[in-house]
Amino acid sequence: MSKLEALGIGEEEQIEMPEEIPEEREGRQPLVQPGVFTFKLPDDMSNVWGVFDSKKGKRIYASFNKENALTVHKSDPKYEGYFDGWVVNLLINNLEYPRGPERIEVADMTYLIKALEAKEEKKTKLTTNKAFAETLSKFAGGLFVAELTWNAYCNPNKDIYMNIRDDEGKVIKAEVQEGNVGCGASYNSYSRDPLKAIPVDGETGFFLERFEETEVHGEDYGCPAVLFCNARLGRFKWTDGE
User: Fold this and answer.
1) The whole model's pTM is what?
2) Are strands 104-106 and 97-99 parallel, antiparallel or unpaired?
3) Rounded to whole angstroms, what are the CA distances from 131 to 82, 106, 121, 150?
4) Of 76, 101, 103, 234, whose CB has the highest number of CB atoms within 10 Å?
């Protein structure tokens, strides 16, 4: 290394400096681990909405992310406040699907609104997409309790991702394997079947956000896919915030 005076640099070299310096990109936040949490809706719900086509017609979804944050207001007691304030990235939609032994079709968003309206005398008739959006927006900044679970699916209609390793066996990245489709297996964070349960990190006790199917079934398993977990909410309940 040389002293600054010995480098022979001066004012003759002009370096362009942008008028506005963008914020540095933040690292990806890990998923909130499964459990029962108290959540807080965004204070402004005007920009969370999207629409999609389904076999039942047009349906809507609320997309929660860093800009429109659904946050953990109170962690599951087993985490001792660890996830308080964390952002939860997920979608909640109003597409109905069969529930319970009678297979009555109900949407996740219906259950969420039912929980939020639990202490209100007048309940909203959720018969239009607009009614869903307006009703949920009314509870902007509100609190509710829900169970957060994870799931992962090896889609038989899509090419799989596979871990690429260096000479020492360390994972470098995951790459799409064109022409090699998924096996159709599914996994979740609540199954008691070890062949359907998302594996757990032996050191932290936390579920793995990404894992190879061979970690579940053994090295001889025919599908080498690496799967990525997604979060979902259910079992919604009203709360007074305490």
Assistant:
1) 0.84
2) antiparallel
3) 36, 15, 17, 29
4) 76
